[in-house]
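Researcher: Last one for today. Full complex below.
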Amino acid sequence: MPVFYERRQLVTPGDLLAENDYLAGENTHKENGRIYATRVGLVNYEDKRVYVVALKSFYVPTVGDTVIGKVVEVTLGGWVVDIRAPYPAMLRASDALERPFKPQKDDLPSLFDVGDMLIAKIVAYDRTRDPLLTVLERGLGKITRGQIIEITPTKIPRVIGKQGSMISVVKQETGCQIIIGQNGRILISGKLPEDERLAVMAIRKIELEAHTTGLTDRVTEMLKKEKGTMEVVKNVSEET
Amino acid sequence: MASLMVSRVKQKRIAQLISRGKRLDGRELTDYRDVQVETGLIERAEGSARVRLGKTEVLVGVKFELGEPFPDTPNEGVLTVNAELVPLASPSFEPGPPDENSIELARVVDRGIRESKAIATDELVIEPGKKVFVVFVDVYVLNHDGNLIDASCLAALAALLNTKMFNYEVKEGEVKIKPGYKPLPIRNYPVAVTFAKFNDKLVVDPWQEEEQVMDARLTMTLEKDGKICAIQKGGYGYFTPDQVFEASKIAKQKAEEQRKLVVKE
Amino acid sequence: MSQKKPEKLIDENDVRLDGRKLNEIRPTKIEVGILANADGSAYIEQGKNKILAAVYGPREVHPKHLALPDRAVLRCRYHMAPFSVEERKSPAPSRRELELSKVIRECLEPSIFTEYYPRTSIDLFIEVLQADGGTRCAGITVASVALADAGIPMRDLVSACAAGKVEGRLVVDLTDVEDKGGEADMPLAYMPNANAITLLQMDGMLTSEEFEQAVNLAVEGSKQVGQIQKEALRAKYVVSKEAEAEKEEAEEGEQ
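Model: Here's the assembly. Have a good evening.
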């Protein structure tokens, strides 16, 4: 069962990763018993599966995902939402209002207008049509405060961490509310702008060092150090 | 509204037959369809020919104009090839400026004639560096039933062989036409052979329905001594190097056969 | 304003005007991800050729009626800047550019998993900033890298290299002056895993034996180009990896 690379080696499209008994995982393709990489990234072998963690890829809608989108158009029956995917997403009025949609009475722009940011969930998606969203569940709806940053979608799992371990560290140390969209958008909402800035710093660090080990500890260290510095500055400015 | 799109069932049938070495219209894999060549149909043109390759029909007209030579070839006449996929030739052709398909067709036909030096352009000079004959070869596709390239190249060759130049003399810097004609000096006879690939099988002269199923096409233009003077791969698939060499061998023989239809010894 | 034609293009020791051996490709350098707005981009310098490629997509198709129900549509524009050639070229697309846009598109599409993204378009732009022969090959090479940089899933990279005949000898990667003064020029593009030739054109005169040799030369040249493409893609990532390792060391040093 030959494999041709070591774990976590950098591969490019067309690189032969394994032969025969292996299963083709993410970002790979099997042809005539041979498994090739389809994207640039780090190759990994787990049990009998070979997959590539892509360096860069774009978000492909998946039913059940929570996403953060931007309203780009108001139509007769709903809204067109940009979710940073190859396809625009649709939010129908019936998936935004808790009661039936009455075109004569309901003014859609007053609910969500062009430029509004939403937290939504993907309820339907297949090859023949654009993804459908809903905002009718708890925690979904228009975003009214905080800031939104964008990272490449492949790094989202790292930002979350094993069973949420990484993101809980960031939430704890910064006191911010953080909502992660699977489509690479993250909402950070804190009591003070400094708190939000800290959280952004942490997430950028995770994005940059996603491929390294011991990251959770280093992020915790960085946050504590930055907070310490901030405290000193605050005390100094209070004294003067 | 008629659609030329081939149904899935038929597509499968065509591919299956070819994998077994047979074609839907009964031809062998390397057979051409029946060819009919007629020349001199358009009296207004200096030369003309119409080729029917199966149901594909192409008309080529040749006209002369006086013009200036290109600055890097002051002692040569000029050749210009243009192609039009006239809307009446197929439900898929739309009126408008030349699209990428008609441009590709024109440039492949042009390459065959130009690289084989079929036209003796050095004999088209009236005043070196100043005045030469410009030969316009216009390819007019009248019915598209596949393999426009081979049909167009054959028609262009036949039209050029049919072309007559008027006699002239230069008096006081003016070109004066004298009575009588002489044939356009032709030194080579380029013939294009187009292949369609279906997995590991190569097929010569694909007709329109085969073109919809094929992986890719490869055209080789050969001059009279069997040398290759132009190659064009088209379509979204690929050829292996061995398939390309196989095509080269078959093309040599087929080009000779096709040439005999147009060039009378 | 035309260049003086050189006396000989290859000397008696089979050395070319620019010092290369017959089967040597020009020095090639590729940079990845150099344009901020494009989803993927790359830049190549091959001899005097300077070419930029950018990819947008997969994205919504405009106009909508061009969308395909079962796969992405690949659109390609090969264009030469007016100042890229010796005599200024009009910015309007020429017939040559239109033909090349078509054959380049047909050459790259087999490498892309277009069936993963129905009803979208992948738009590829190739801009030749400076030309010295073999621009369609260099253009294909840099475009394939740009597609990989955009994160578009591919079966393989496509690598391109021309072969030809100059002063009776078969050579690889012809410059403009060699193309104009030579007997044949044959651009070729290749995908190694499938042993697939996805672009093949020729103009000039070759016997069938010479043609066979030329194809083999061009395929070998393409394989060399392929190594350069892979290195360029890796280099972009390795640089950030090294930078991070340095930063970590520095931080540890402080504590």
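The mean pLDDT of chain A is 89. Chains A and B do not touch (no CB pair under 8 Å).
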